[in-house]
Design brief:
heterodimer, A: 576 residues, mainly alpha, two-stranded antiparallel sheet, 19 helices, 2% strand, B: 62 residues, 3 helices, 68% helix, rod-shaped
Chain lengths: 576, 62
């Protein structure tokens, strides 16, 4: 890693951490119905939306079950709407390029993908979707899916503070509207204007015809790009207007937009942890969790940067300069934007997978085997800050397991935030932690033994296997980024990723909401000298170790067959 | 058109299945928790077991 790279990365992380603290406190205030500066402007919008949804339903106190069912029904209605818009886009307005309706299986896959905050794209945006589809079926769910994940996390946190037995952990619609109007809309609007100023298109035109210097014609797609780019990163969505995603000069035109997009991905997921501390009235607990997540990020981030900067023996033997000089970046520049270089590509790749956004400014398929390891780990652990709300829930699932195991080890009653952890919570949390590897490993295994699974891979051997493993890791973690070598637009991958996305999203949320319901019914146990404290550095270390041990035991064999095997094969000159 | 309808139905079915999962989760948390049954039994039958629970120095069995 060069000094310049290290400095760039250090400053980016420092800014993100610095912003996450005030953002977290603002979130806590906004989600606890506290006053915010924007209230005079946004209160009327809220009231209008309450009338639209139904004033009565927005005022009903909800327990975990009602909250979850309303969340599912709202998501279903929106998924159906997205699906219908996509399949009938040829009959809808704002289709200047006259694209046909999207094929039903692809529309099914896309509807599930975008309503779950995954944004896995088995299509090229600029060659498949009309502007109307891009705005309503793609950009709109980027707001609602992010808000859904976030409000579920809020409901979960409230379960630890309520004293009414859990009959009121919030109102789903009120939370959804408030988070959208108080956080997502203002930030997306303000930064959207900045992105337009930086050169991102924002127009309802379809494409422009350019005449090249060679006298040829080139169709250059444009459209409402800037409005999508902000929420795409702010909401940890990741779906791109263009197939090349954030490596396309219209999606990410300048180093400023690249920095802004990297920061946008990080700030809210990190702020949720701060918000958690404010809401439970225990900042120390939040900082312990924050430190666990930050340590995991700092552990894996350098692996990517160092591996990419080192390049490979094969590149060096081919006569390519792999050492960084004043004029050359060195290392492995295959699949990377020259504008961003190795540091910004490696950082973006690690952040987009750790914070489970899924946008890419470099092609992950072209990373060195070890360079691709951090993106894999980010999606597999799913709790290195993770996606909006759900990453936080995954971290707490590991935390509850850690509490239980630590309680057994020291002979104290397992308690978390004053609530006893018993059989029901452990069963539910175990289900959460088992579903994730199951929906990654089972379809990956099937993909590498089935002829149609193998046929979609661009590479053979461990690299081809890694392409399938990445696809299902990305789908299960609701990430959406891809190892571009895999042709995802085939029936097997469209079916399989759709179901993996669905199972990777909702059952863990439902089970964690049930944990919320269970703990909300329990009285808060006063802390005594016999209580195992969870807001200490020692417990933080144990939490960190639990994540690593459970994660390593679950996923290391799968990684050993892919990136690790490819690394050793490449050392002996074998490529795939 | 039948393909469009089929996927539409499948989407609805998938979400209904998830709602079923909410019911399933409730059953898990509705079941008696570990320890609770023992606590109830101990409190209601405390008289019967009281001699057994005496410490050895109070005349209880070691």
């Amino acid at each position: 890693m060069t000094t310049q790279s290290a400095l760039q990365i250090f400053l980016t992380l420092l800014i993100a951490a610095g912003l996450s603290v005030p953002a977290g406190r603002y979130l806590a205030r906004a989600m606890s119905n506290g006053r915010t500066l924007l209230d005079p402007v946004l209160d009327p919008i809220d009231r209008f939306l309450y009338i639209l949804v139904g004033k009565r339903v927005c005022a009903v106190p909800m327990n975990w079950k009602v909250y979850s069912i309303h969340m599912l029904l709202t998501n279903l209605v929106m998924a159906l709407l997205i699906y219908l818009i996509l399949v009938f886009q040829d009959r809808l307005p704002l289709n200047p390029q006259h694209f046909g309706g999207v094929e039903p299986l692809l529309a099914f896959n896309t509807a599930i993908s975008f309503i779950t905050n995954t944004d896995w794209q088995a299509y090229g945006g600029e060659t498949t979707l009309s502007n109307f589809s891009q705005m309503t079926a793609i950009t709109f769910p980027m707001f609602t899916s992010a808000a859904t994940g976030f409000v579920v996390a809020m409901a979960f946190i409230r379960a630890f503070t309520v004293k009414d037995g859990g009959s009121n952990i919030g109102n789903f619609y009120r939370d959804l509207i408030r988070f959208t109007t108080r956080v997502l809309m203002p930030v997306a609007f303000a930064l959207g204007v900045l992105f337009i100023q930086q050169g991102e298109p924002q127009t309802l035109e379809g494409a422009v015809l350019a005449h090249t210097m060679e006298g040829k014609e080139q169709t250059i797609a444009i459209g409402p790009v800037a409005s999508m780019e902000t929420i795409k990163h702010l909401g940890t969505n990741g779906g791109g207007f263009f197939n090349a995603n954030a490596s396309h000069p219209y999606e990410n035109p300048t180093p400023t937009t690249n920095l802004m997009q990297t920061l946008l991905m990080m700030v809210l997921p990190a702020a949720i942890v701060i918000c958690f501390g404010e809401m439970i009235g225990n900042r120390r607990q939040a900082w312990v969790l924050y430190a666990v997540m930050a340590t995991l990020l700092l552990l894996f981030l350098p692996v990517t940067i160092v591996a990419e900067q080192a390049g490979t023996t094969i590149l060096a033997n081919s006569g390519i300069e792999t050492a960084a000089t004043e004029t050359q970046p060195g290392g492995n520049m295959e699949g990377k934007e020259v504008r961003f270089g190795i540091a910004q590509s490696g950082l973006f790749a690690t952040v987009t997978t750790s914070f489970t956004t899924g946008s890419v400014n470099a092609m992950h398929d072209s990373f060195t085997p070890l360079g691709a390891l951090a993106p894999f780990v980010g999606m597999m652990l799913q709790c290195i800050y993770g996606g909006k709300g759900v990453g936080f829930l995954a971290a707490l699932a590991y935390g509850i397991i850690a509490v239980f195991v630590a309680g057994l080890m020291v002979g104290r009653t397992p308690e978390f935030l004053g609530k006893k952890i018993e059989k029901a919570e452990i069963v539910l949390v175990s289900l959460v932690l088992l579903i994730h590897p199951l929906v990654i490993l089972a379809p990956t295994g099937w993909s590498v033994i089935s002829p149609y699974g193998v046929a979609a891979m661009a590479n053979a051997g461990p690299h081809g296997y890694a392409e399938a493993l990445y696809a299902f890791s990305s789908s299960a973690a609701n990430n959406g980024s891809a190892f571009a070598g895999l042709n995802a637009a085939t029936p097997w991958y469209e079916w399989a990723t759709a179901f993996v996305i669905l199972i990777g999203r909702y059952p863990p949320i439902i089970f964690m909401m049930a944990v919320a319901g269970s703990v909300a019914r329990k009285p808060i146990t006063p802390m005594t000298t016999a209580t195992l404290r969870t807001d200490t550095a020692i417990f933080g270390l144990f939490w960190f170790a639990t994540i690593l041990v459970v994660g390593a035991l679950t996923f290391f064999p799968a990684l050993a067959l892919g990136p690790v095997a490819e690394f050793f094969a490449m050392k002996s000159g074998l490529t795939f | 058109m039948s393909g469009i309808a089929l996927m539409f139905i499948l989407l609805v079915a998938a979400y209904l299945l998830m709602i079923g999962l909410v019911e399933f989760s409730e059953r898990i948390i509705e079941k008696p928790q570990l320890g609770k049954r023992n606590e109830t039994m101990a409190s209601s039958e405390i008289g019967r077991y009281a001699p057994v629970c005496r410490a050895p120095e109070d005349g209880g069995r070691p």
